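pasting for the record
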Amino acid sequence: MIRVLQVYPQMNNAGTERVIFNWYENIDIEQVQFDFLVEKSGELDEKIKQMGGKIHYLYKKSNKEYYSAVIQFFSEHPEYKVVHTHTHDRMGLVLKAAKKSGVPCRIAHSHNARNDLPKVLAFVKGLDSIPIEKAATHFFACSNNAAKWLFPHKVKECKVLYNGIRLEEYLFNEDNRQKVRKALGISKDTFVMIHVGRFARQKNHEYLVKILEEYGEKDLSNWKILFVGEGPLEEDIQKQIHKIGLFEHAMFLGSRKNVSELYSVADMFVFPSLHEGLGIVVIEAQASGLPCIVSDAVPPEADMGVGLLNTLCLQDSLEKWCEMIAEKKQDVTSRESQKSEILEGKYNIKKIAAQIQQFYQENGK
């Protein structure tokens, strides 16, 4: 058996962590086992242990202390021949330590793409890329934009590995639609939009509130917007919704385990993000057959090719966003007819997990 060390600060049930765990759940753990080097405990830790994975907790306040501690870690764990690091502040330090310690396969994986950084921060980010490019032996990214952002000099060497999901889990389900709408007090004829994302600047909730304010002036029916997620800006966004008089249209559902069911509840997905490496929730929403209105920060690779992804610029007028929402409303019955086409798509986690397992087996000896 090959043991692969996955490195990320914390294993929670969202974002990059979910991508890693999706692989984990779909590889053959009799052949390849995942262990984790993290800085603090997370929501998925118990599941990892149940699957036979080891979790190594390592946190040091200063980068110098952290680097020394990682060197020490590798000296105590020579069994790791593959180290797979994922976008975070100390990625370069881990790769440098792994190289110094003689780990033969060192993967740098970009899960994001920022095009909104001020020039000074963009310059600093460029400097941070240098140690990553020098220390890694292999480069993965969730999209071409994500590769360009983190490995500007290694784009040609980078393999784009799609963020696969268990597509069948997200397919539209009429029973879930009726059950959860009833539980939430939403009538069957209410038009429901949904946004799934952490309440942080990247997800651009402030702009979404402006879109909703504009839309509310045109649609006087009992439409709803479901906000799914948590984060530091949640209270601010709630206050803004109250201020513009739309709180009766908004439902703040927090972090949910039944997100796949909530997609079936909704009729449209709206996502004006400032930057995305890919946007896994955009894939999930399309898998459920939802028309998706997204910003051009979502890369072209996120298009499942089933005619559901609609892109607008953040510089476009609010009126144009509202017109797109009105234009792309669809009859819910059309979601049933797309299921077979969706399942054959490029984001099928079983296909992607097979690819990555093969890579580990070829490079982890």
